[in-house]
Write a structure and sequence with these properties.
The protein has 322 residues and is mainly alpha-helical. Helices cover 70% and strands 0% of the residues. The protein contains 14 helices and no strands. About 8% of the residues have low confidence.
């Protein structure tokens, strides 16, 4: 009778070694994804998976250009300002807007010139009063009446300036020998009454600065009187793009130099110089230097003449063409 040999029980180390070998065998023969899925996900793995998923979603959304096409508030404000500027520029080219702008500028310039003129005449009034009353010892009627001398002279001067400036806006230059004599005579009298006490031989000590200071009033008045009609005439000659031409006003009978003369009416002009200019313009038109129907502004620029003469030449050309 045989006796069985007892099998020793495995130790803990043998069990652990067998389990490790088994896990190694299974890991070597199982798919990689299945092993990864079967393994418990750590915190780091979960965060990385979330980051990768977020990146894929961002790339998909960034490929859409719709957000780039939406106007921001700043872009809308810029577009609004640009559209407004374009409309204002278009409106500025309108003949009515250009005429209104010219009228406004003319009004501003006229106001400034008249303010300077009135201020100069007011300063001149004090100088004239001083000249007339320097030998008076008491304030009688003559002393008070001396204040009215300069305003009376200035009133005549302002009438002439106003008439010339207004008629210039109607296309008629007011030139008359009597008006010129009265105008510059009044200015000369005003200048003399202002500077007389300060001239050499009249003052105890000649002071050129005092002479200049009291001559400022009359000199400014002369400047305003000289420039106002010219400025108004230039504004009246502006071409704002309107087709209608100003209707000439009837010629007053007292100004015989503006009355048509029979011997030159047949040439289409009312002035001998205008008749010569008409022939010159016709030659320039034939040579191609001017268009067939030049405007008054173009004729004034080419012929270097006044507005009235340019309009007369223009009307003569149109009458001859008809």
């Amino acid at each position: 009778m045989s006796t069985p040999i007892p099998i020793p029980e495995p130790s803990d180390e043998d069990v652990e070694r067998a389990v490790a070998e088994l896990e190694k065998f299974v890991a070597g023969h199982a798919p990689a994804g299945q092993v990864a899925d079967d393994l418990p996900a750590s915190k780091r793995v979960r965060e990385l998976r979330a980051e990768v998923a977020e990146s894929h979603a961002l790339l998909e959304l960034q490929a859409d250009t719709a957000p780039l096409l939406v106007d921001t508030d700043r872009v809308r404000r810029s577009r609004k300002r640009s559209a407004e500027a374009a409309r204002l520029h278009e409106l500025a080219q309108d003949p009515a807007a250009r005429a209104w702008q010219a009228a406004r500028i003319r009004s501003v310039l006229t106001t400034v010139a008249l303010t300077a003129l009135v201020g100069a005449l007011a300063w001149s009034t004090t100088g004239v009063h001083h000249t007339l009353t320097r030998t008076m010892t008491e304030q009688g009627a003559a002393w008070w009446g001396a204040w009215a001398v300069e305003p009376v002279i200035s009133a005549v001067l302002l009438v002439i300036v106003g008439a010339r400036a207004f008629l210039a806006t109607r296309g008629r230059a007011l030139h008359h020998r009597h008006l010129t004599v009265v105008e510059y005579g009044a200015l000369l009298v005003t200048l003399t009454l202002n500077v007389w006490p300060y001239l050499p031989g009249q003052a105890d000590r000649f002071d050129p600065m005092q002479l200049l200071a009291h001559a400022i009033g009359p000199l400014v008045a002369v400047g305003a009187v000289a420039v106002l009609p010219i400025i108004w005439s230039a504004f009246a000659a502006l071409d704002h793009g309107t087709a209608a031409s100003p209707t000439p006003s009837p010629t007053p009978p007292e100004y015989r130099e503006n009355t048509p003369r029979p011997e030159i009416e047949e040439q289409g002009a009312t002035d001998p110089r205008a008749a010569v200019l008409v022939d010159r313009v016709r030659r320039m038109i034939a040579a191609g230097e001017l268009p067939a129907n030049p405007s008054a502004s173009r004729l004034r620029e080419v012929l270097e003449c006044g507005t009235d003469t340019a309009r007369e030449v223009r009307d003569a050309l149109r009458g001859g063409a008809a």
